[in-house]
Amino acid sequence: TITATSRGAIPVVRFKANVGRRVQFELVRTDGSKVPLGA
Q1: Whose CA is closest to 15, among 29, 3, 27, 28?
Q2: Which of 14, 17, 21, 35 is most buried, by the most CB atoms less than 10 A from its CB?
Q3: How far apart are CA 21 and CA 10, in angstroms?
Q4: Which domain of life is it from (predicted)?
Q5: pLDDT of residue 31
Q6: Does the structure show a pLDDT above 60 at 39?
Q7: Residues facing residue 28 across a β-bridge
Q8: Helix, strand, coil tally for the chain in percent (to 5)
Q9: How far, in Å, CA of 14 to CA of 11, rounded?
Q10: pLDDT in tens, 5-34
Q11: Is residue 28 a contact partner of residue 35, using CB atoms and an 8 Å limit?
């Protein structure tokens, strides 16, 4: 899923998930820098 939001916006993203599976997200900004943990 790709989202494009305006500055300061918090997107609501819905996706199908399986219970009991682990997942790790790596969030990056359009300039390639990583989103800080807890942001």
Answers
A1: 3
A2: 35
A3: 25
A4: Bacteria
A5: 94
A6: no
A7: 34
A8: 0, 5, 95
A9: 10
A10: 778 787 888 888 778 878 788 889 999 999
A11: yes
